[in-house]
Amino acid sequence: MVSALPKTAKSTKGHDEAQSITQTSLPSIDSVYISRCLGKAASIIKDPKVPRTFSLPPSYVRKKIQKSEVTYQPTQEQLLPCCHQTFQWTYLALRVLGEIQDYFKINDTLAGLLQTVFICSYMILAPLFGYLGDRYNRKILMSIGILIWCVVTLAGSFTTQSYFWALVVSRAFVGIGEASYSTIAPTIIADLFVGDKRTFMISIFYVAIPVGSGLGYILGSGVMKLTGNWHWSMRVTPCMGLLIFIFLIIFVPEPPRGASEDHIDTPSSRTSWKEDLKYLSTNWSFILSSFGTASVSFTTGALGFWAPIFLLRARGLDGSPVHTASSQDSLIFGAITCVTGFIGIGMGAVSSKFLKKKIPQADPVICAIGMLSSSPCLFLAIVLAKHSIILTYVFIFLAEIFLALNWAIVADILLYIVIPTRRSMAEAVQITVCHVLGDASSSYIIGAISDAIQRSQPTSSYWKFVSLEYAFLLCPFIAVAGGGLFLWTANFLEEDRKKATQQIRDSAGVNYIQRC
Question: Quick one: DSSP state of residue 86?
């Protein structure tokens, strides 16, 4: 096949370039296949449109082979509508938790069960959607999840006083939508963007966590104040969810897996569930960062679930009207969550962009700094609540900024230490780990500790506050543990990143040769 090349200087140059590319980019393979590949590569290189420096297989070559002219160049406007809704109605029930407790006459333990059931459903289903997301159409999977999400949220808003169990069941079904979206969406972003652009877009996506949660606080308390009924707070966002469903279908593309990294997804590149888990179990950066993320999830989950109730009880110590305090705290806490989300995630993304150029292990170090810095802020916010609500809000503000540093960076770490065809599974495993050890247990644990302390003390508003205060003090220590885990991650990061990069290159080369 090599002898079939035209005997011209130009084609000889093309042959030399193709041979150089093969030697530098491909694994050792049979010489017959190399010869066949050289013939095609040389004919492509003769095309004046082809840049003279590229890595195998460039997107241009891939299009030549596949005879496809499809390109994927989504804009921010196409992705943002689906990003910002993620957490808005998932946690909306928690924004009117005090009213739900009064309506159903439930204690702190049963109130914490609402969040625990949702998270348990979410983490159990996440591996399933991770497996499906690595093999089937991701837009369809997300669309089904969001549709179920909307229906069960709306159904839960019609729960009557004698059917608390029905609200618990509806919260469990909400986990289906959360599992489908949170597991799959980051992998689509990874296949659309690369490098600093990917970090930026992942940051925009993860702004949905604090901003969506904060808007949920504001929307929940606002609708509650307007209607006087917590049920209506849960009926607004399903309508918005249907709009997101439409935006997802129309605007968000379904790129080939690994498209942004010149990795071609083929049936032969897909592996079994067991093989995926075995691969992930040898990736120490993935394991340690997942446990570090669990500490972030534990802290933010406890804070998001119990902070408004904690502040309400703190205000009750000085005789403030309960319902006025509840509405006021929800609005303030929601605003703080929105603002700190923008600031923290933005600071994390910018710090990562500039520090990675000088320090390869910068990402986990930034996460560790965020966790270790949040710990004293959380401690001060808790112990100062009975003395000054204003100071409590100041330290909550600082703590949430430091915690928000982690969200986009942790997601970005996963995307560059795991190969494209296993990213959905990796997202699912990380979600499961961080929720089993994080917010699935934190809300229930904090509530159970609070109830245990209350049982040994006289019934009073003072001990209702103090019991929750003592339970909350677990969070600063969990944050310190998380900081240590991220520092440990830094020891393995560079090695695991190089392994993943090499696997992507080797896979791209083998797929190219097979197509030749």
Answer: T
